[in-house]
Amino acid sequence: MPTTTPTHCPYCALQCGMGLRRTGPPVPDGAGAPVEVVERPDFPVNRGALCGKGRTAPEVLARGARLTGPLVRRRRGGPLETASWNEALDRVARGLSRVRAAHGPDAVGVFGGGGLTNEKAYALGKFARVVLGTSQIDYNGRFCMSSAAAASSYAFGLDRGLPFPLADVPRTGCVILVGANPAETMPPALRYFTELRDNGGTLIVVDPRRTRTAELADLHLAPRPGTDLALALGMLHLVVAGGRVDQAFVDARTAGWAEARAAAMAHWPELVERVTGVPLPRIRRAVELFCDAEASMVLTARGPEQQSKGTDTVGAWINLCLATGRAGRPLSGYGALTGQGNGQGGREHGQKADQLPGYRKLDDPSARAHVAGVWGVPPESLPGPGRSAYELLDALGGDVRALLLMGSNPVVSAPRAAHVEERVRSLDFLAVADVVLSETARLADVVLPVTQWAEETGTTTSLEGRVLLRRRAVDPPPGVCSDLAVLNGLAARLGWEKGFPADAEEVFEELRRASAGGPADYSGISYRRLAEAEDGSEDAGVFWPCPQQPEGASGPQGRGTPRLFLDRFATPDGRARFAAAEHRPSAEEPDAAYPLHLTTGRVLAQYQSGAQTRRVGELNAAAPGPFVELHPRLAARLGAADGDPVAVVSRRGRAVAPARVTPDIRPDTVFMPFHWPGLGRANTVTNPALDPVSRMPEFKVCAVRVERSGEP
Ligand code: SF4
Question: SUPFAM superfamilies under this entry (predicted)?
Fold first, then answer.
């Protein structure tokens, strides 16, 4: 009887439980991964349900879809050629050393990914800071969650995507989903919202498009892109005007209300109606539904977050929760639906430009001393904060002349992507570790093929802050190596003599010590505890923070902390802080030359830059390429019919794709999914204007014009 290995999906932040069962004997060369996915009804988050991406994930294990040996470019402009691991690692070590010797440690950059396991994120941050000695490290999660993280950290003193399990959603009274489309991004999560409605609760969706999620809502508000900050302020105005403020909660558990109240009162509902384009009666109705329920939640995703005012926008939605007493109480609160598979854990363990493991701040002397102690280096040897992701990419070929990149494909996924591609091409040296030959890997001097989810053990942290064990279920092909082994091999070649563990559990044990006492404290979590904790209960897994209990202490350490802030917020005085947010226009507003808004997003059958999912037949058949969604009135003005090629043009470039004519989008807005390279690369057009706090680029709104196109 073939055994089934319980594990988790490699893709999004829901981290659905799945089983992998071998379907035959190992293939002689180790490739081809004869496994099938089986349901795991014991895992409470998805109860066996998987979307097409998760169900077909084993296809990327197969030889035809992935890299199976190192590739090197032996001369500038020459082809990528096969090489031994020794040659490949020697070349990377030499390439990085040469640049470091000529231009200093900060001339070497490191770019990570939100799909890397906790162990890899931790090891990559440590590698950058102690082996390379560079401050220039950041990762693609900056493009995903940084605004929600900044706003939550300010308001609550701690950023955990959801401060409560998803299981609380159906039990609350009203949920406002802002710029989130789980029907396409994480379909198994949709049941939480349908159960909410089945239980008599209400669902409000805020999105410029009538998405599949919006179709399920009791109320859909479709603001102009970039105006959801004004919408939140207008709703707070109505809360105050209607006497719906929970003054006792505000007085007892918050700070900064006077300024937040004043900002909201300056946003008259009629003004908000004009700015957002949302009819005032619908805004009033949303306030009634939110306040009439005994408990309510606001959940955001990339819509409000990927803006040049993303931190303030999220802050304004948090203000709405705080003013109405909908935070720090059972079944109420604010949360972010994180996107990438380890979007939560990836931001906690040190691959962010300004952070150390345990979600510690890099400029905090006590944090530096603690982590430096674990790493066996003097605190003063640790570099300071570096550049954020887009700023780092923008500096490539300038003062950053070499780059080590793991698990990211910025040539497709970064804003102003043609410029980023040009910067990547201008590097003196590029090494990419990836599973597949992505568009960015194609430009590398050395490509290091690495193992993937089913072939290795490691931990991830889901959008609920639930730490999970991904288990090795199949053997990797002989020509690939784990990211941890890559870092181990490079550290040795670069003269690091203290040892750089390549075993995931050994890395996790070090991560536990490094995170101890920090905001994201994993010190009480172990692989053994994680394995035991996936026992079919609602609290399966372990929720951080989970501090190590002192020797001899009694009481259940068990599952960590599924629900945060019920007694106090994590700020120094225990009070949540209102943001003093004011509406302001997007960095680029429509004008005569570029009269429309562009907004971007995902489709059901593809994931992020598509590097993996574009290699899966079933997914490609379902979503074979990009498209431009436009309203029938706009299509009629252009003379474009469904399927006609149209060009979306911004100040940064143009992207061409077939028109998809639909009444489900505002007439002043067009939409493109961002999963594809080439002519239809949506990010050629997007705007890298950055949020001043989170450094999040403004993916979600820029000014464009749309033209009929001669291109096919
Ligand atoms: Fe995987 Fe996310 Fe789909 Fe679940 S919803 S199967 S985690 S991609």
Answer: ADC-like, Formate dehydrogenase/DMSO reductase, domains 1-3
CB distance 116 to 340 below 8 Å: no
Give the pLDDT score at 30: 47
Burial class of residue 228 in the structure, from the number of CB atoms within 10 Å of its CB (0-12 exposed, 13-18 middle, 19+ buried)? buried
Question: What's the gap in Å between 9 CA and the centre of ligand 1?
Answer: 6
Would you state the structure tokens that stand for residue 646, as one six-digit string?
């149209």
Q: Is 437 left (phi over 0), alpha (psi -120 to 50) or beta?
A: beta
Answer CATH for 146-337 from 3.30.70.100, 3.40.630.20, 3.40.228.10, 3.40.630.30: 3.40.228.10
pTM of the predicted protein model: 0.95
Q: How far apart are CA 274 and CA 279, in angstroms?
A: 8
Regarding the domain delimited by 596-708, which CATH topology (the fold level of the hierarchy) does it fall under? Barwin-like endoglucanases (2.40.40)
- Report the DSSP pairing between strands 645-650 and 702-708: antiparallel
For a pocket test of ligand 1, which of 20, 186, 464 has the largest count of ligand atoms closer than 8 A to its C-beta? Answer: 186
Pocket test for ligand 1, best of 40, 51, 618 (most atoms within 8 A of CB): 51
Contact indicator for 460, 341 with CB cutoff of 8 Å: yes
CATH 3.40.228.10 domain position(s) in the chain: 146-337
CA 560 – ligand 1 centroid, Å: 24
Taking residue 437's Cβ as centre, other Cβ atoms within 10 Å add up to: 19
Output the CA–CA distances (angstroms, integers) from residue 400 to 91, 96, 104, in the order listed.
18, 11, 10
Which atom in ligand 1 lies closest to the alpha carbon of residue 187? 5
Q: What is the mean pLDDT of the chain?
A: 94
The SS3 assignment for 187 reads helix
Token output for 311: 């931190």
Strands (DSSP E) contained in 488-601 are: 542-543, 576-577, 596-601
ipTM tops 0.95: yes
- pLDDT value at position 63? 77
Q: Where in the chain is the domain with CATH 2.40.40.20?
A: 596-708
Specify the domain boundaries for CATH 3.40.50.740 within the chain: 71-143+342-363+378-456+471-503
DSSP type of residue 130: I
Q: By the 8 A CB rule, do 511 and 533 touch?
A: no
Q: Give the CATH class of 4-65.
A: mainly beta
Residues of the chain with pLDDT under 50: 30, 555
Rounded Cα distance between 186 and 303, Å, is 15
Classify the C-alpha dihedral 648-590-143-425 as positive or negative.
positive
Distance 11 CA to ligand 1 centre (A): 6
Q: What's 71-143+342-363+378-456+471-503's CATH class?
A: alpha beta
